[in-house]
From TrEMBL:
GO molecular function, one term: heme binding
InterPro entries the UniProt entry points to: CYP450_sterol_14alpha_dmase, Cyt_P450, Cyt_P450_E_grp-IV, Cyt_P450_sf
CDD domains per the UniProt record, alphabetical: cytochrome_P450
Sites where the protein binds heme: 443
Cofactor: heme
UniProt organism field: Coniophora puteana (strain RWD-64-598)
Family: Belongs to the cytochrome P450 family.
Superkingdom, taxonomy of origin: Eukaryota
Record protein name field: Cytochrome P450
Residues spanning the membrane: 12-31, 276-299
Keywords: Heme, Iron, Membrane, Metal-binding, Transmembrane, Transmembrane helix
Pfam families named in the record: p450
């Protein structure tokens, strides 16, 4: 009893201390957030501004809020606030022209909504003045992809072999794992990639890194909330895994031919290496994983396109392997042999329909918002002024679903992406497709992403008859709704959607 009282008394000063620290923190926060917001010398219609938070609804459900902004302004440019920061959502073709002009900063834009990006990547420049995007590009240039192809193909064959001859797989887990494993070859080290358990561990670490960055964490980005702690912990685990490999290489005086070795040779320390690997894997997997899962779903619901793709794929495997489809079904090793022998260039040349279908999938599912910050002088848009310091947002849907650019925009029509159709659209309208970005910040991983997605398509479709069912095993008859709860990333389906597969018997 005495002990309990003593503990209670001794905890009172501590409680006071906590209260004092919290009060000072709160006052500091309110004062700093209530300072005059970044210049608002614009007169764009503004969605209601709530005290302190700017737009309370943004923190409740950011994606829904942004969609509601899009609807609210009925196609016109509009503004809102995130905390004290002015954000202008620019619309349509005039908005596009301003958004992709010079003077807008890419990283500063995204950092507003993900201040914890700083945990992963506090610098936009790698040593000297080389940007991280151009440095990353050296890891995925054509010669590297060519050289890595046989290894990546083998990694993929191992995972697909483990699926067996028949079964059901959640694409946003099982197929995503293949993309993740192949992306790891582009960003990490041989020691991780050759061990499937390590690949799964990395997937879990990345899931936690992603889960730790919620819109709510923007409010008090420096407070050690449980989600932020989980994120830091996951970063620590990644650091430990990498540091073990680096130590082993030093101890054994061993070198490898992989991205980690390139980073060590460049003189990076362990923290820099961990950040770089994390950023590269994020860039590689974030979109490729879910885009590709949607592609498989769309394909099963559009059989006409599937059968054209199948013809391309069967012809490709027959041309580049020693097996004819008329004698036996393709095994994973036959398909792997064809992919390795042919290499990325021949694969690309042999699959124009697959290419167009992937692009049409991206047009439809890549339905999000790009972000920038105006770090130059004020910009002018339809006679209004966007001041220095303001953030800009652009909805991809303004182009991807504009009937002038893509007639009957909600229809799935890969023929829009034949080279001739793309050229004609570009000549008439300028930038229309944003799937790989535009102007100064085009995706440096475009080719790697296409090659990975094409290799997996060949492996899965040459090997299996596939189908798509809902969580209760019923064949899907229409495209499922997306979850739409992640900013800047294609989200999975709202309801459980599964792929069925069985070894093809139609030899
Ligand atoms: C289907 C897969 C992918 C899609 C749809 C995609 C899409 C995009 C888009 C739209 C942008 C520009 C964003 C903006 O302007 O705000 C971008 C930038 C970028 N992407 Fe991708 N991407 C994919 C795969 C990859 C892969 C596999 C990598 C790397 C291995 C990668 C690396 C990058 C990098 C580094 C940038 C930033 C470029 C810069 O700062 O200038 N992406 N991507």
């Amino acid at each position: 009893m005495m002990d309990t009282l003593k503990n209670a008394y001794s905890s009172i000063p501590f409680a006071w201390l906590c209260l004092a620290v919290s009060s000072v923190t709160l006052v500091y926060y309110l004062v700093s957030e209530l300072r005059p917001p970044c210049p608002v010398e614009d007169d764009f219609p503004t969605k209601r501004r709530d005290l302190f938070l700017g737009s309370f609804d943004f923190f409740r459900d950011s994606f829904k809020f942004l969609l509601s902004c899009r609807e609210w302004a009925q196609g016109a440019h509009m503004g809102f606030y995130i905390l004290s920061h002015r954000v202008v959502m620019v619309r349509g073709l005039p908005g596009r022209d301003v958004f992709f002009s010079k003077g807008l900063d890419f990283m500063a834009g995204y950092r507003l909504l993900n201040p914890q990006l700083v945990d992963v990547m506090p610098v936009t420049e790698i040593k000297g003045d080389e940007s991280w995007a151009s440095f990353m590009a050296t890891f995925i240039r054509s010669e590297v992809l060519d050289k890595l192809t046989p290894t990546m193909v083998q990694d993929m064959a191992n995972i697909v072999d483990a699926w067996g001859d028949k079964g059901t797989v959640d694409p946003f887990d099982g197929v995503y794992e293949i993309i993740f494993a192949l992306s790891m070859r582009l960003a990490t080290c041989n020691e991780f990639c050759s061990d499937r358990e390590k690949v799964r561990t990395m997937m879990r670490i990345f899931q936690r890194l992603e889960d730790g960055s919620t819109p709510a964490s923007i409010i008090l980005s420096w407070v050690p909330t449980p989600s932020r702690m989980r994120r830091l912990w996951a970063g620590g685990e990644l650091y430990k895994m990498i540091s073990d490999v680096v130590s082993a290489r030093k101890r054994e005086n061993r070198r490898e031919d992989d991205p980690l070795q390139a980073l060590i040779d460049k003189g990076f320390n362990l923290v820099e290496i961990t950040r770089f690997i994390a950023m590269t894997l994020f860039a590689a997997v974030t979109n490729t994983g879910n885009v590709f899962c949607w592609f498989l779903i769309y394909l099963e619901l559009h059989k006409k396109w599937k059968s054209s793709i199948l013809s391309e794929i069967d012809a490709f495997v027959e041309t580049h392997s020693s097996v004819s489809r008329s004698t036996s079904p393709f095994s994973t090793s036959t398909i792997a042999e064809a992919l390795s022998r042919a290499g990325p260039d021949a694969l690309e040349a042999a699959t124009p329909t697959l290419d167009a279908t992937l692009h049409e999938t991206i047009r439809i599912v890549f339905n999000g918002f790009f972000m920038r910050r105006n770090i130059g002088s004020a910009l002018s848009l339809d006679g209004r002024r966007i001041p220095h310091g303001a953030f800009l947002m652009f909805p991809t849907a303004d182009l991807h679903f504009d009937p002038a650019l893509f007639p009957d925009p909600h229809a799935f029509e890969p023929a829009r992406f034949t080279p001739a159709a793309m050229e004609a659209r570009r000549a008439e309208h300028g930038i229309a497709f944003l799937g790989w970005g535009a102007a100064r910040h085009q995706c440096v991983g475009k080719r790697a992403a296409l090659v990975m997605m094409k290799m997996i398509t060949v492996m899965l479709l040459a090997r299996f008859d596939m189908g798509v069912v809902d969580g209760r095993g019923r064949t899907l008859v229409e495209v499922p709704k997306p979850r739409q709860d992640t900013l800047f990333k294609v989200s999975p389906t709202l309801t459980r959607t599964l792929l069925t597969y069985e070894v093809r018997r139609d030899a």
